[in-house]
Amino acid sequence: MSTVSDFNVAANAETDREHEVQLSLLQALCQAVREQKDAASIAHMLDQLTAYCEAHFVSEELLMRQKSYDDFEDHVDDHNHMLDVLREISTDHAAGKPSVFVGKAEDALAFIGNHISTRDKRFADFLRSGQ
Which CATH class is domain 4-128? Predict the structure, then answer.
């Protein structure tokens, strides 16, 4: 039978894999923008990234609620900020504003990288502690 500790380790490993996918999708988007890929490809990448982030955030937030995580609200604020930025990027892209879009994509990559290395690390540590 699985223990709470086993569950926490498995949840943390799954979340880490999701973070790797999230970062790789965002890095691919930034690369596509730098290489001036066609608008349809970039729009598709944005849609994939946004859908993935939405699903990941819901999953992570459910786990935080389940564990009564003490930093839930601030963590969710970061998630909401990231989704807002992705929506702004999509709007800029649809409006044909690539110069604005490039900077926002790079900023989003830096933001999510920082989020993972700080807030998500804190949550992972919380899970590992068996809370």
Answer: mainly alpha
The alpha carbon of 66 is separated from its chain's Cα centroid by a whole number of angstroms, namely 20
Instruction: DSSP for 3-28, please give it.
Output: -HHHHHHHHHHHHHHHHHHHHHHHHH
The pTM for the full model equals 0.84
pLDDT of residue 96: 84
Exposed / middle / buried, residue 125 (Cβ in 10 Å: 0-12, 13-18, 19+): exposed
Of 54, 70, 85, 67, give the one whose Cα is nearest residue 119: 70
Number of H helices, E strands in the chain: 5, 0
* Lowest mean pLDDT, pick from 3-7, 109-113, 119-123: 3-7
**Which structure tokens are listed for 116?**
């993972």
How far apart are the C-alpha atoms of 13 and 115, rounded to whole Å?
Answer: 17
Q: Compute the residue count for the chain.
A: 131
| 20-38 per-position pLDDT tens digit | 999 999 999 999 988 889 9
Q: How far apart are CA 87 and CA 16, in angstroms?
A: 24
Residue ranges of domains in the chain? 4-128
